[in-house]
């Protein structure tokens, strides 16, 4: 079970859109529609932003969206705001009741 | 409002067993709609799934930690616990407990995390 691959960092200006990729294998990302994304501000617990590849939990801004193609999932944040600056982690179900996280991406706004 | 709170020693000696408890308040720990997990984060690094327990008591562990991990649940106290044996400095991390939703297969509620340092 290897960690999913995410870019170490991405950046964007306020109002712009950015996309963070999350690459796995056919045993995790590609094999199931159970990809979730988490936002983590410094010193805080992660917060669920996207589940089931593209579903937003109640209370999460519609500026956040998710998608998947093959073994790669993506998180897109549109209309970037200063408060979006944080670390973002993808997570995928990997079969047999196991989960695997990505290495994390630092978003700078 | 459901809340999760980790508790346990902040310092553990090498080769000993790390023991943490997560207390769930404001909701049931016995619901078949949810499962309960432990996730850790070494300083400056990413998240690592440790393991999960279901209301039935069934447990599932990260293969890389399986030989050292035990997760249990005490429904009478609405608590679930983590034991990690034979710890080394590599086990130093913030340990989070979290709730997973069966319908979403995602961790939708998290505790604030507790820092555990392995050092003599």
In short:
The complex is a heterodimer of chains A (109) and B (120). Chain A is mostly beta strands and 109 residues long.
Task: Map the helices and strands.
The complex is a heterodimer of chains A (109) and B (120).
Chain A lengths: L8 E3 L6 E6 L11 E6 L6 E4 L13 E6 L2 E6 L8 E8 L5 E3 L3 E4 L1
Parallel strand pairs in A: 1-9
Antiparallel strand pairs in A: 2-6, 3-4, 3-7, 5-6, 7-8, 7-9
Chain B lengths: L2 E5 L3 E2 L5 E8 L8 E8 L6 E7 L4 E3 L7 E6 L4 E6 L8 E9 L4 E5 L3 E5 L2
Parallel strand pairs in B: 2-11
Antiparallel strand pairs in B: 1-3, 3-8, 4-5, 4-9, 5-6, 7-8, 9-10, 9-11
Report on this model:
By secondary structure, chain A is mainly β. Helix content of chain A is 0%, strand content 42%. Chain A contains no helices and 9 strands. In chain A, the strands form 2 sheets. In chain A, strands 1, 3, 4, 7, 8 and 9 form a 6-stranded mixed β-sheet that branches. A 3-stranded antiparallel β-sheet of chain A has the order 2-6-5, with no helix packed on it. In chain A, a hairpin with a 6-residue loop joins strand 3 and strand 4 (47-50). The mean pLDDT of chain A is 97. With 120 residues, chain B is mainly beta. Chain B contains no helices and 11 strands. In chain B, strands 2, 4, 5, 6, 9, 10 and 11 form a 7-stranded mixed β-sheet that branches. In chain B, strand 4 (34-41) and strand 5 form a beta hairpin. Classes of the chains: A mainly beta (109), B mainly beta (120). At the A-B interface, strand 7 and strand 8 of A face strand 5 and strand 10 of B.
Keywords:
heterodimer; A: 109 residues; mainly beta; 6-stranded mixed beta sheet; 3-stranded antiparallel beta sheet; 9 strands; B: 120 residues; 7-stranded mixed beta sheet; 11 strands
